[in-house]
Amino acid sequence: MATAPTGQSARREPELAGQTVVLIGGSAGIGLETARRARAEGADVILTGRDPEQLKRAALDVGARGTAAFDATDSAALERFFNGLPDPINHVMVTAGGPKYGPLLEMDSDEVRDALSDHVVLGLEVARSARAKMRPEGTLVLMGGTGGRRIVRGLGIAAAATAAIPPFVAALALELAPVRVNLIAAGFVDTPLSASLLGDQLEARRNELRTTLPIGRVVGPEDVAALAVHIMINTALTGATFDIDGGQQFVS
């Protein structure tokens, strides 16, 4: 006769125990929430960002093992950071950076180059700098979006930039193997960044999404964090793009 499991034996073991997760852009929003989720799964976390004070608060919030304040788009600073890590790491997630919008004909050549290449260049520089420190079973997780997939007047170069990232991630996954590379493509996520961009229009946008999204609620940073940690844990995933927008792209 089978016996019921005791509370001790039924308890699930944390799935990132003994692993280290680096969050590039981890002082707020999706990055910070992913750090919190990774800590709950037993990982040590290292946070980076531009603002030392904000990083200090974030580190205390999640119990981070360490922090580093620098601009992630500075390739020399990025290289120094990874070279300075004393121990190997398992996973890196990049949430720094964001999309650029605006009428095409009002952008100069440098702005177009930046808009098209920012995410790709940042992802590539992180991969180059982190590679020597990453364990073979590790993961590089990059962030993209679903909103730019629609060709809409006013979004400008965003659609082209959005389209470039998934094939870049797939190609990078082949070159960086056995380290895995994946992309999270998010729609609207209710973060401090979204609040700062929308200002007094934030609540109206939330209400609109609550009534139109198939899931009936707004996507939060904890939703993206859960997906990011799953990608880190599931060692069969590489070269893929994972949408998380509550169905926004189908009803917008």
Topology at a glance:
Layout: H1 7-10, E1 20-24, H2 29-40, E2 44-49, H3 52-62, E3 66-69, H4 75-83, E4 89-94, H5 109-130, E5 134-145, H6 158-176, E6 180-186, H7 192-198, H8 202-212, H9 221-233, E7 241-244, H10 248-251
Parallel strand pairs: 1-2, 1-4, 2-3, 4-5, 5-6, 6-7
Keyword list:
single chain, Rossmann fold, 7-stranded parallel β-sheet, 17% strand, globular
Give a short overview.
It is built from 10 helices and 7 strands. It is of the alpha/beta class and 252 residues long.
How many β-strand runs?
7
Biggest beta sheet attributes: 7 strands, parallel
List the uncertain runs: none
Summarize model confidence as the mean pLDDT. Answer: 91
Strand order of the largest sheet: 3-2-1-4-5-6-7
In sequence order, what are the helices and strands, one letter per element? HEHEHEHEHEHEHHHEH
Our Rg estimate from Cα atoms comes to 19 Å
Percent of residues in beta strands? 15-25%
User: What is the share of helical residues?
Assistant: 40-55%
- Briefly note the CATH topology name: Rossmann fold
Number of structurally distinct domains? 1
Broad structural category: alpha/beta
Shape: globular
Number of helical runs?
10
End-to-end distance: 56 Å
CATH architecture: 3-Layer(aba) Sandwich
